[in-house]
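Narrative of accomplishments. A recurring question from our advisory board has been how the design workflow behaves on a single, concrete structure rather than in aggregate. To address it, we present the structure tokens for one chain from the evaluation set, followed by the sequence designed for it. No filtering or post-editing was applied between the two.
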């Protein structure tokens, strides 16, 4: 049998079982991955659904102030007089130096915040400097070590998925060669764009849209290959058998 005679509808049964099993598992995996993105990044801006803001918050962070600052101007506004709030905000903007904790701020938090923040479960305990410090830091988004880790896992892992998907799709029939080349290569291009966009967004929030383009691009290309391959392996042979039987 020549290579060009190997087509998805006529593949030997064992090879088909392997390919179909693989595509089913990978297809499910991609759906779960989509759900996971919605659940983790989708909620970054506090609203459900994935938006540009979510991507900016996840990779770039909230650089216009710490959590303490935004809370003291928000839901914690009533907890202290304006002068006290300003005092805390200034200290936080300075990086909340520990040298001023014992002599001054321990007392301030003790007077205004600790009656709740040390007794109520589920909210940070402000009798401890470390807990205050964590919320006084400006959120600069994903850290370089975590981006490095996620980037290499993504590049290696997803390349494997696309490699086998593309290999299976090579044996599709009736798809013009240019379209095959396009469908097989685009996921790799968009994968690289996607990973690159995280780093660019960490550097400047204006690149967040590239993340969406990358994600949508490789989802579309892989969905196309998945659907065509499954159709040709499962439905086409049945159709051929039916029409042959008539
Ligand atoms: C009457 C009780 C009470 C007092 C007093 C109080 N808080 Fe809170 N604080 C809460 C509750 C309840 C929440 C959780 C709900 C929310 O985030 O609004 C919270 C949440 C916060 C958060 C967000 C925590 C997080 O993990 O995101 C910050 C920051 C905060 N408070 C700062 C302060 C500071 C600073 C003071 C003192 C000036 C203060 N709070 C005084 C009850 C209190």
């Amino acid at each position: 049998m020549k290579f060009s005679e190997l087509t998805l509808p006529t593949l030997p049964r064992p090879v088909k079982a392997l390919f179909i099993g693989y595509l089913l598992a990978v297809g499910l995996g991609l759906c779960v991955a989509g759900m996971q993105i919605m659940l983790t990044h989708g909620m970054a801006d506090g609203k459900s659904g994935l938006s540009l803001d979510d991507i900016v918050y996840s990779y770039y962070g909230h650089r216009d102030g710490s959590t303490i600052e935004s809370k003291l101007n928000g839901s914690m506004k009533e907890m202290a007089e304006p002068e006290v709030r300003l005092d805390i905000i200034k200290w936080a903007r300075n990086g909340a130096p520990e040298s001023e904790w014992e002599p001054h701020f321990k007392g301030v938090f003790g007077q205004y915040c600790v009656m709740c923040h040390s007794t109520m479960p589920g909210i940070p305990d402000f009798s401890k400097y470390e807990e205050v410090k964590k919320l006084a830091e400006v959120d600069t988004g994903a850290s370089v070590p975590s981006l490095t880790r996620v980037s290499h896992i993504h590049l290696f892992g997803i390349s494997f998925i696309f490699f086998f998907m593309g290999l299976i799709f090579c044996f599709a029939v009736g798809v013009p060669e240019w379209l095959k080349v396009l469908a097989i290569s685009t996921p790799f291009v968009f994968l690289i764009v996607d990973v690159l966009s995280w780093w660019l967004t960490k550097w400047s929030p204006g690149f967040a849209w590239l993340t969406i383009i990358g994600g949508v691009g490789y989802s579309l290309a892989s969905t196309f290959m998945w659907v065509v391959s499954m159709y040709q392996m499962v439905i086409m042979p049945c159709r051929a058998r039916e029409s042959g039987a008539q």
